C-alpha cells in the first residue's frame, strides 16, 4: 500500500534554481534557520516542520536522527502530524531503532486525533497484521473508512477493494478524481468490464480508455497494454457498426 518516502534526495540535488524561479539554496537555508529558531522556542508546528526538513533534506543535509529528535518533541506536545511521522520512523527503523510497540502507539495517537494518514496506516496494520497487531477486519475497515471520508485517496482505494459494487466504484471514483493513478486504472477496468463483469456501471470503452490514459499520465506504464486492449475493442465495435 502506501509507502512513506524518507526523503533520500541529497542537499546538492535540492539546491538548484529551476528555470523561471528564484528559489535556491540561500532561500531554503534562510527558511530553515527561521523554522529552527521557532522550534527551539518550543513551537510544536515548527518542530514538526523542522523534523520534515531534516527528513527530506530541505535547506539542510539529510539527518534521520535529527528528524526523529524534532518529531519526538512535537509528538510529545500532541502534534498529530509529528506523532504520525514518528510512528512511521519507529515502524521502519529510520533514525531510531525499529520498535513495533512504539510505532503502533504513536500512529494510533495520531489516528485518534483525526490524522487521515495515520488512520490509513492503522487500518493497514489491522488489515495485514503488521507491527505486532492481530489481524482484525472490523478495525481495519473502521480506520480506513475514517480516512477515506476525510478524502485520503489511498484509504479510498483500500476501502473500495473491501466492497462489492456500487460501494467499490464510488470509492475508486473519488480517489481517481484526485489524480491517483492506481484508482484511475481500477476505474478503467470497471468501465471496460461493465455490467457483464458484475459491475454496477454500464460497459463504456471510451470511458475506460479515458481513465487508463489518465493513469498512464500519472506514470503507471503497466496500464499501457490495458489501453491498447480497450482501443482495439473500440475499433472492432466501430467496424461492426
Structural class: mainly alpha
Largest sheet: none
**Extended strand count:** 0
Ends apart, CA distance between termini: 43 Å
Tally of DSSP helical segments: 13
Mean pLDDT score: 88
Q: Which strand-content bin applies to the residues? A: under 5%
Spatial shape: elongated
Oligomer: single chain
Helicity level: 55-70%
Can you tell me the residue ranges where pLDDT is under 50 for at least 5 consecutive residues? Answer: 1-23
Corresponding CATH architecture of the domain at 157-241: Alpha Horseshoe
Write down the secondary-structure element order.
HHHHHHHHHHHHH
Topology of helices and strands:
Elements: H1 11-14, H2 25-40, H3 44-56, H4 64-76, H5 80-92, H6 100-112, H7 116-128, H8 137-149, H9 153-160, H10 167-176, H11 181-193, H12 205-217, H13 224-240
Helix pairs in contact: 2-3, 3-4, 4-5, 5-6, 6-7, 7-8, 8-9, 9-10, 10-11, 11-12, 12-13
Q: What does this protein structure show overall?
A:
The chain is mainly α and 241 residues long. It has a domain at 157-241: Serine Threonine Protein Phosphatase 5, Tetratricopeptide repeat, CATH 1.25.40. 66% of the residues lie in helices and 0% in strands. α3 packs antiparallel against α4 (64-76). The longest helix is centred in the C-terminal third of the chain and has 17 residues, at 224-240. The protein is elongated, with a radius of gyration of 22 Å.
Question: In brief, what are we looking at here?
Answer:
With 241 residues, the protein is an all-alpha fold. The protein is 66% helix and 0% strand.
Notable features of this structure?
single chain; 241 residues; mainly alpha; Serine Threonine Protein Phosphatase 5, Tetratricopeptide repeat; elongated; disordered N terminus
Amino acid at each position: 500500500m502506501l509507502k512513506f518516502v524518507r526523503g533520500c534526495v541529497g542537499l546538492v540535488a535540492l539546491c538548484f534554481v529551476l528555470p523561471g524561479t528564484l528559489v535556491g539554496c540561500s532561500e531554503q537555508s534562510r527558511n530553515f534557520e527561521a523554522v529552527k529558531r521557532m522550534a527551539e522556542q518550543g513551537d510544536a508546528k515548527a518542530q514538526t516542520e523542522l523534523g520534515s526538513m531534516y527528513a527530506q533534506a530541505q535547506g539542510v543535509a539529510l539527518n534521520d536522527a535529527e528528524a526523529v529528535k524534532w518529531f519526538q518533541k512535537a509528538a510529545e506536545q500532541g502534534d498529530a502530524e509529528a506523532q504520525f511521522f514518528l510512528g512511521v520512523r519507529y515502524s521502519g527503523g529510520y533514525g531510531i531503532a525499529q520498535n513495533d510497540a512504539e510505532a503502533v502507539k504513536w500512529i494510533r495517537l495520531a489516528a485518534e486525533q483525526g490524522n487521515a494518514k495515520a488512520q490509513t496506516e492503522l487500518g493497514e496494520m489491522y488489515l495485514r497484521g503488521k507491527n505486532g497487531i492481530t489481524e482484525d477486519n472490523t478495525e481495519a475497515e473502521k480506520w480506513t473508512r475514517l480516512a477515506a471520508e476525510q478524502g485520503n485517496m489511498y484509504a479510498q482505494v483500500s476501502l473500495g477493494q473491501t466492497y462489492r459494487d456500487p460501494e467499490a466504484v464510488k470509492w475508486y471514483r473519488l480517489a481517481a478524481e484526485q489524480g491517483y493513478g492506481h484508482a484511475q486504472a481500477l476505474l478503467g477496468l470497471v468501465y471496460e468490464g461493465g455490467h457483464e463483469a458484475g459491475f454496477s456501471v454500464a460497459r463504456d470503452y471510451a470511458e475506460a480508455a479515458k481513465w487508463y490514459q489518465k493513469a498512464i499520465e500519472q506514470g503507471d506504464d503497466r496500464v499501457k497494454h490495458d489501453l491498447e486492449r480497450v482501443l482495439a475493442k473500440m475499433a472492432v465495435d466501430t467496424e461492426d457498426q
